[in-house]
Amino acid sequence: MRAAVCVGAGGPDMLEIHDLPIPSIREGWSLVRVRGAGLNRSELRTRQGHSPGVRFPRVLGIECVGSVAASADPALPEGTTVAAVMGEMGREFDGGYAQYALLPDALLMPVTTTLPWDVLAALPETYLTAQGALDAAGLAPDAGGRLLIRGGTSSVGMAAISIAAAHGVEIAATTRRRDRIDALVAAGVAHALIHDGASLADDVRAVWPEGPDHVLDLVGAATAVDSLRLARRGGTVCVAGSLSGWTLPDFEPIAMIPSGTRLTAFHSDNLRGRAGRDVLQRIIQQVEAGVYRPALDRVVNLDEIAEAHRYMENNAAIGKIVVLP
């Protein structure tokens, strides 16, 4: 089988196309014929050498969709359409950047769908994260409210816009580039805000004097404290992204969290396997019905994987990049 192998820590050129043996199934693991895999910034960081414990060479990819090629589990007959996310895919064991992946049965989420593979591949990690983060932020379906999304043109940001807009939420979203405002508005954003590194306070207060009810912070460490200041008193900030890194140095909760404002977080590993199957199936149905509109930036093949990583590293994508092995 052909696979994109990360041969060492470094730049996009560390991703090389190799011919590897097709893995054999073993107890508790099934062979999946990979039909599509979404690209994620966590894979970029793993490639750069920032994921502790990862040993190279490694086939990256924390998610994939495809069909069961072989399994000893009677609940996973050959041909079953499945998705998988997280659970150390592409880190502890080889992931989705290949024509086949040997995956733990516990990670596989059987689904039914009429979606094409590229659209289906854009959903699992991105939409499960968006849905889980909005739930963690306390955004009740069809309850309205005001939502600020920081990092709006990221893949998770565009998914969160799609979900929230479908439920009648008034949305403000940030971007660093003026040429992306139209894409945000088209996705359902009422207030597209330019974030140039300074505080957003003036722009946000001009839209909502009391502040947003919910802030979904996908930028992460660099903006989390500022997001706490932006939310209305009693509002909630959910950090669910790491575009600016994973850690928040010198964090003083009593000084930095306004009284009554809530800070929470969401990690997509919470919706892996059985825990995420029903959520993903509902998302698929909403996409099939045209309620949710996935933002698919580009579709590439394995030979283009290094260039796709370079494109992602340059923050050029609006929405999801998908590779079809």
General description of the model:
This protein has 325 residues and is α/β, with parallel strands linked by helices. It is 27% helix and 24% strand. It has 10 helices and 16 strands. The chain has helices at residues 41-48, 117-121, 124-136, 155-166, 181-187, 201-207, 224-230, 253-256, 274-288, 305-313; strands spanning 2-6, 15-19, 29-38, 58-59, 63-70, 81-85, 100-104, 109-110, 146-150, 170-175, 191-194, 214-217, 236-239, 262-265, 296-300, 320-323.
DSSP strand content:
15-25%
Rg of Cα set: 20 Å
- One letter per element, helices H and strands E, the order comes to EEEHEEEEEHHEHEHEHEHEHEHEHE
What is the number of helical segments per DSSP (H or I, 4+ residues)? 10
Distance between the termini: 10 Å
Largest sheet: 7 strands, mixed
What is the molecular shape?
Answer: globular
Helix content: 25-40%
Give the secondary structure arrangement, pairings included.
Blueprint: E1 2-6, E2 15-19, E3 29-38, H1 41-48, E4 58-59, E5 63-70, E6 81-85, E7 100-104, E8 109-110, H2 117-121, H3 124-136, E9 146-150, H4 155-166, E10 170-175, H5 181-187, E11 191-194, H6 201-207, E12 214-217, H7 224-230, E13 236-239, H8 253-256, E14 262-265, H9 274-288, E15 296-300, H10 305-313, E16 320-323
Parallel strand pairs: 9-10, 9-12, 10-11, 12-13, 13-14, 15-16
Antiparallel strand pairs: 1-2, 1-4, 3-5, 3-7, 3-16, 5-6, 6-8
Helix pairs in contact: 3-4, 3-9
